[in-house]
Amino acid sequence: MTARGDEPEPWAPAEHLPTDAQRMGLNRSVPDGALLEFAGSLDSAKRSHRMVAWVLLVVMVAPVLLTVLNLLR
C-alpha cells in the first residue's frame, strides 16, 4: 500500500480476498487469510483448479466427519 493506503503498489499481486474478509483484517499474511486468498484465486473453468477445490473440501470436511463418527460410537 502507499503511504496513504488508498491504492496498491503496481508490483503487488492482486488480492482475491472477499471484501468481508478484508474488513475483518484478514490478508495473505495470516493462515486463514492465506487459505481464503488461495481458494479465491482458483478458476472454476480450469479442471485442475476444480480438482484442487475438491481436495480442499475433503481435507476440511474429513476431520469433522471423523469426529462425528467417533462421537456416535
Write the layout of secondary structure elements.
Elements: H1 19-23, H2 31-40, H3 47-72
Overview of this protein structure:
The radius of gyration is 17 Å and the shape is elongated. The chain has helices spanning 19-23, 31-40, 47-72. With 73 residues, the protein is an all-alpha fold.
- Percentage of residues in DSSP E strands: under 5%
Average predicted confidence as pLDDT: 85
Percentage of residues assigned to helices: 55-70%
Content-based structural category: mainly alpha
Major sheet summary line: none
Count of discrete structural domains: 2
Uncertain runs are none
The ordered H/E elements are HHH
Indicate the radius of gyration in whole angstroms. 17 Å
Number of DSSP helical runs: 3
Tally of DSSP β-strands: 0
The end-to-end span amounts to 52 Å
Give the overall silhouette. Answer: elongated
